[in-house]
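Pipeline run #58 for the internal structure catalog. This entry was flagged by the ingest filter as a single-chain record with no existing model, so it goes straight to prediction. Upstream metadata was stripped on purpose; only the residue string is passed forward. Reviewer on rotation: M.T. Logging verbosity set to normal.
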Amino acid sequence: MEGIKFGTDGWRGIIAKDFTFFNIDRVAQAIADYYRAQGTGEKGLAVGYDNRFLSFEFAREVSEVLAGNGIPVRLSSRSLPTQCISFAAKHKDLAGGIMITASHNPPEFNGVKIKCPFGGSAPAQVTDEIESFLDKSRIRKISLEEGERKGLIKKEDLVGEYLEKVGSFLDEDVIKRAHLKIIYDPMFGVGTGLIERLLAFSKCRITEIHSTYNPGFGGINPEPIEENLLSLKEKVRCEGADLGIATDGDADRVGVVDETGTYLNPHQVFSLLLLYLIEEKGKKGGVAKTVSLGFQPERIAEEFGLPLEETPVGFKHICEKMLKGQVFFGGEESGGYGYRDHLPERDGLLSSLLLVEMLTRKEKPLSMILKEMEDRFGRSFFKRVDLKRERLINKEKMVEEFSSCPPSFVGGIAVKEVKTIDGVKFVMEDGSWLLLRPSGTEPKMRVYAESSDKQKLARIIEEGLAMARKINV
């Protein structure tokens, strides 16, 4: 029996190796047993899927097991963004949702994400309990056709109402007069056609690239980071576009390119969105960011007197802050940003549309808006390097080792603070920082750094990599 371990909000694995139909049945039965034990199964679950190899077939398998346990299923009639399932769970008053996706991971992976009735990722206590139900009862399953005859499985459009909700978050008058040339790269993922639908009543001209069905994602991981967006950068330059946007495989993360073809790092995008929400949309409350996001948001929050909280990596931690009602905006270094008044969930499409609204309202190119923001709050140069290791790193021992005897200087700059929220983060006197954080699922050490100067950044990263190579715990 293959071991199945749930992560942030579900389980992922390599297709045909551990992500098999048999293991999907085991997971689906554990999910069914959990909701039956909670007494909420009769409210039903939304089930969706992305464009990965066999994703629909896996979603159908999950639906057949749930229906075999008497749990009603709203099965999406098409591939769709993960946040659509979160939206359906919340606004259709369901017990929860299940999304078949491996998000931004390589094409050989697939996964099961579990969503809660509040419209966000299941917290650890939920996934731990579901995991405890694995193999506790026999798998009960009926065919899709039988489930439909019995009214237990209903295929539905789970996209339309979500798009209406996204539209309600935007300034309709501003979007109506938007007249931008936009290049959109859905990275062969589920976002295809959706930006165009959301901007249908504007004057924007949208050109899509990488929009065909391709479960191999064109040989590039569907993650909107700079190294994967070379085609988008070139297309923006060649077409003289105002904005380049990319969303990952399940469209909950966003990557951004300005009118010059320059990629904006996630720290810059988060800061631009935060400042826009405060100054132009009048949002108030707290801000939350993962420990791997940078110093600009801290300076913005300080200027406007807003409380800022730093969390471990993973949007579930941002979600927890939002559910307490204080945090109105939160984000992480991977390009996932969420909005409390919308969903306590990442949303790459809404983030994209807010950038369109920003450019239209300010009537300035994105590069100029960025410069104005950085003139106020400092420039941001960021880099992340994933260092492969032979085995998983013991995070607790690593943290203990570095925090008990931290370096006095990193990159020639004095260290003023050591944070151990998630891994070890050295914050220097000039605001630069270095984060060493081992992956919990792969034998990798992630080395992150940010500085206001490119040369300083290079020195900090080199020293961080040297530290990471010496770790032996």
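catalog note: The radius of gyration is 22 Å.
catalog note: The first strand starts at residue 10 and ends at 14.
status: ready for reviewer M.T.
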